[in-house]
Amino acid sequence: MAQWTSAVGAHQLARLLRSQDPRDAELTATGRRLPAYRSLADGVRLLVLEGRIPVAARLPAERELAGALGVSRTTVAAAYEALRAEGFLESRRGSGSWTAVPAGNPLPTRGLEPLPPEAGGSVIDLGCAALPAPEPWLTRAVQGAMADLPLYAHTHGDYPAGLPVLRQALADRYTARGIPTMPEQIMVTTGAMGAVAAICKLCTGPGERVAVDSPSYANILQLMRDAGARLVPVALTERLGGWDIPAWRQVMRDAAPRMAYVVADFHNPTGTLATEDQRRRMVDAARAAGTLLVVDETMTELRLDDDPEPPRPVCAFDPAGSSVITVGSASKAFWAGMRIGWVRAAPDLIRSLVAARAYSDLGSPVLEQLAIASLLESGGWEEAVAIRRDEARRNRDAIVGALRRALPDWEFTVPHGGLTLWVRTGGLSGSRIAEAGERLGVRVPSGPRFGVDGAFEGYVRLPFTVGGAVAEEAADRLANAARLVAGGHTAGVETVRTLVA
Ligand SMILES: Cc1ncc(COP(=O)(O)O)c(C=O)c1O
């Protein structure tokens, strides 16, 4: 890493160090009291690995940090020296010191390999957080689309902004949610991925900074890296507490990102739900900084518990859609196989997005658009989503129960919605667990895939896609994988980078 891209103030770092869970210290301590410099170095190292301070963040000068922590400057100097020796800090005279991850720490990129078909029967694949099609609604939706198709057969079939009937139906849903919306404010896309790809094409360029939740959805992070964006991670507060608004304000002020990408509802991978107050303050901060806020609502409809009250959508605080671009998808609420997503924004922004999208993807398939429109118009959507929620809730409760039985020292906070559980693997490497799991017939994505620069090594993500005996078997295989890792019986080779969704 040649330079720093964000900065952590002395008081902010002192606050983060003091707020560390005392159990974290046990991960590093060996029973005897550690010298002060060692505790400080371990604390900073954990903050980097947990994604609570980003990689390439400038740390405060030794004297400032010593003052904020009430320790001697020698202690801070020795801690920085230890971090440098371990690869967690880089320094250059005149530029200060900034955080790093040691060479060899698994980075989240590389190619993806789908699960080999022959492995389908025996491997429990926990890579994709997506459920099978809800029948009979899929069949009914396609039948509805077939009935409407003759109306479109005489047209050329290219609708880069989306079929008018679907744009209208989607606009009506926002209006029903309390945010008046016209069809001109909607563009239909090829999944939420297609929506974010078009937004990146229009709004970012090589070297442009994009602030993201840390952790965040792996495929979107990769899409943004591919677009040349420089990702600036902003840690979520712990235990599903939502967004850390002071940290976001600081990043927007210091890094001046062109764009920020956030998941407010049942965030992937943590399941976090941002509060209404955080939403209001995030929109204010973005508007003040001139940062475009891209809000991914892919998981919004997967509300699994009645509490807490659902907060208003983020776009309720910018109904005109000039500061907030909302992305939606049928993939989680209905079925990922439809590949239908959408964008809600101001009409002029939508026009620019349609133009930006047209050169790589002329539009989404007419039949699938008609199927979603028919579902929305017939009320079948609500029925299908209700089935989805029941299934995801059952699976969530099954995987939570199975983990508590088989792996009692793995920690997680149970989210009120979404499709994923973000699990701390009891001080073991998530990458090694993924690697051992692969051999034992359970496929899990490791934490660093959801981080920007090698953070979250101590995590895996588990989806709410299996229940009953399969959830129990998955937990047993993961417990076996954990035993292998704890016993040092893993090869230490890089895990195959399988498809994650
Ligand atoms: C937050 C988030 N955004 C986007 C996607 C991808 O959505 P789509 O299938 O609509 O492209 C997912 C899928 O897991 C997701 O969780």
Strand order of the largest sheet: 6-12-11-10-9-7-8
CATH superfamily label of the largest domain: Type I PLP-dependent aspartate aminotransferase-like (Major domain)
What is the SS-derived class? alpha/beta
CATH architecture of the largest domain: 3-Layer(aba) Sandwich
- State mean pLDDT (0 to 100 scale): 90
Architecture overview:
InterPro entries: Aminotransferase_I/II_large, HTH_trans_reg/aminotransferase, PyrdxlP-dep_Trfase, PyrdxlP-dep_Trfase_major, Tscrpt_reg_HTH_GntR, WH-like_DNA-bd_sf, WH_DNA-bd_sf. This protein is of the alpha/beta class. The chain folds into 3 domains: 6-99, Winged helix-like DNA-binding domain superfamily/Winged helix DNA-binding domain (Arc Repressor Mutant, subunit A, Orthogonal Bundle); 117-129 and 388-486, Alpha-Beta Complex (Aspartate Aminotransferase, domain 1), CATH 3.90.1150; 137-378, Type I PLP-dependent aspartate aminotransferase-like (Major domain) (Aspartate Aminotransferase, domain 2). 43% of the residues lie in helices and 13% in strands. It contains 18 helices and 15 strands. The strands form 4 sheets. The protein has a 7-stranded mixed sheet, with helices on both faces. β9 (259-262), α12 and β10 (292-296) form a beta-alpha-beta unit. Bound molecules: pyridoxal-5'-phosphate (PLP).
